[in-house]
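Summarise what follows for lecture notes:
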Amino acid sequence: MHWMRDTFLTVVVYAALVAAVHVVPVGGQPLPTGLHGADVEEQIELSFREAMEAIYRGRPSEAGRIADELIELAPRDPRSYMLKARVLRLDVADQNFERRDIKPQVNPIKELCDQAVAASNAILQRDPESLAGRLYRGWALMFKSQMHALANEYWSAGRRAKAGKDDLDFVLQRQPTNADALLIQGTFLYFADILPGFVKVARVIVRLPGGNSDLGLQYMNAAAQRQGLSRLDARPLIGVVYFGFEGRFEDGIVEFEKVLEDYPTNPRILEPLAVMNLFFPARLGAELQRTERGVEAHANGPEAWERKVAQRLRFYLALQQMLAGRIQSARQNLEILKQEETLEPDWLGFEVRWTLVNVLLLLGERDAAVALVEELPPRQRESRRLSYARHKSSVASEAESRALLQIQPAVRALYAGDLATAAAGLEAVADVEMPILHFYRGELALLSDEPEAALQHYARANHVQTGRDRWAWFRYFAKARSAEIHGAAGEHKKAAKLLDSATDKHLNKDLVRHVTKARQRYYENGRPGHAGEHVESKSSSEHTRAQSQ
């Protein structure tokens, strides 16, 4: 059942950005519950705005304080509990591959959702037609469904999602342009459509309605075009869908860059950009400093969640540095991560160790690499996976390691756009045969607008058989680059096949491999165009028909 768990995991990994939506309809005023006077309603809206600003500016403790004050101010209002749940959601370890530690983290959130449902039910008891009661209850049920899914409680997740969808349908039939209902329902429609076949069969058991990914994206884009607090969450969610599930990296970059205009150091937005930079040579050098600044800004921050995100950012920074002619800096960052007491998510520790072992082998330091392997229990799966480091053939020769260090300035020039200096530097080590040189010759050809020559060099990087494991990341991105060249030429099947072959079945838990699979689907589907149509004029009957498609 790992594959089914992984599907839910990947959904919630990125949903961390937008764990809940915030309720302000088209006109910018909160949908009133009828529980308060105008002054309290105004304060609720203000509190939501302040809390969301605090979250996006990296101050969730302040957001938590605001939520606690709102619960004290309006204890019968469902929004008070959902705001608190939103804050707690930041600390859930949702990128973990194993799910053992999730339940203690999500249980307090589920309790807050229950309180929001109870408060909504009280509203609906007084007025069964209340749009506010239905909207907030649907929101809470969908949020609780996500928490059940994180804890592998799929039956409960399905039941809550079905009930939540019913409430949101009620709202959208009467107010088709409600931005927040569109965002919640759009998220459900999208992810319900992309689940694998067996899970779709399981939906029948709990009578969970089907999805519609195209309509879901349209709803999300419609929500993003409206004013209100939900707009802060809509753009990152759309970026997440493009980046992590559609494989539309170019569109994802656009969405995340829009968010960074207002929140330039938000580490949760910098993280997907740092990953996508690895796939595009033109971005690799240009964006390196921004990733560095993100790590510096958050590595020692006061918030636990930002330090955890900074760990992942540092890992992607190390990968960028390893590729971009700063291999010693990459080593230093990997060693910093290696010394951290706790790395989160749970796959990060092995990825750091594996990459550091390979960097040491590339530099000719076999004893240091072996020492990292010896630290692991001998029968542990990770130890077996790294056992190649013990073989004498695993380490680069003196000539290879010397050549690697010699070309570092040329590689930096390459990604800075100085192609003549890069070409001269690579030519200076032409007598050494190693995959990394073919990789960089491919990069030089690609950046020189010579895609056919680049393909030949990337192919050679994957055909040299010596020291295969220590070159793994370079081989990986050689295939990724080749896929992009074939994709740009309209050869989508070749592109998808290359990306499929790039991913090692033993190394598939991390974000880089996950989005590679998304990019593979992108090419398998023929590079689908943009979704996100306006639904401004959709009537209630049109909404109903669209839902049934």
Remarks:
- The longest helix spans residues 102-126.
- DSSP finds 29 helices and no strands in the chain.
- The CA atoms of residues 106 and 147 lie 6 Å apart.
- Confidence is low (pLDDT under 50) at residues 1-29, 530-549.
